[in-house]
Write a structure and sequence with these properties.
The protein is α/β, with parallel strands linked by helices and 171 residues long. The chain has helices at 11-21, 38-52, 75-101, 124-144; strands at 4-8, 28-32, 57-60, 106-111, 149-154. Helix 2 (38-52) packs parallel to helix 3 and helix 3 packs parallel to helix 4.
């Protein structure tokens, strides 16, 4: 029965999901958003706020990886991994703060990974970016508490996705 605003670079997949869920929720809309682009994030939050008037809960669940050795990976790939996995959290928080400050209570939920606890061969950039995301969210949890913004960190283990289908090890 909740209102849902869903955002992704894969808007066509979200549109299918909107059709599937439309009878089970009050209002549901799909938005294009490239989380690695601050302008795209800001515009997305503006559109959602315009369509829904407010945002009470934001679940930030972006992740990307490339199996390679972090020491030889080109820097543009490393930058993209960190933008999607870490900086996107900051982009959304910056865009959401004015909205959240007007609420009695808001929730910011960041999905990181259990891979944040140590480096794994071939996954150094992923692990490092998720560790940075977890630390950033932990700091935000403390700093935003005074504004009645609750920050939760979700750290799933391996989840079967097209991204993890490429893993060469037993999950």
């Amino acid at each position: 029965g909740a209102n849902l605003a869903l955002a992704s670079r894969s808007k066509d997949l979200l549109d299918k999901l909107v059709n599937e869920l439309s009878s089970s929720t009050n209002k549901i809309c799909a938005y294009y958003c490239d989380v690695s682009d601050k302008t795209s994030v800001t515009e997305c939050v503006k559109k959602v706020t315009k369509d829904f008037e407010t945002i009470d809960i934001a679940i930030l669940n972006s992740g990307v990886t490339l199996r390679s050795h972090s020491s030889i990976t080109k820097s543009d790939i490393a930058e993209n991994i960190f933008k999607v996995n870490t900086l996107s959290i900051h982009y959304f928080t910056e865009a959401l703060l004015p909205v959240f400050k007007n609420n009695k209570q808001s929730f910011l939920i960041g999905v990181t990974s259990l891979a944040d606890v140590r480096g794994f061969p071939g996954s150094g950039l992923y692990s490092a970016s998720k560790a940075a995301a977890s630390t950033l969210l932990e700091c935000m949890r403390i700093e935003l508490k005074k504004l009645n913004i609750k920050v939760l960190i979700v750290k799933p283990g391996f989840v079967k996705t097209p991204m993890t289908d490429k893993n060469e090890f037993l999950m």
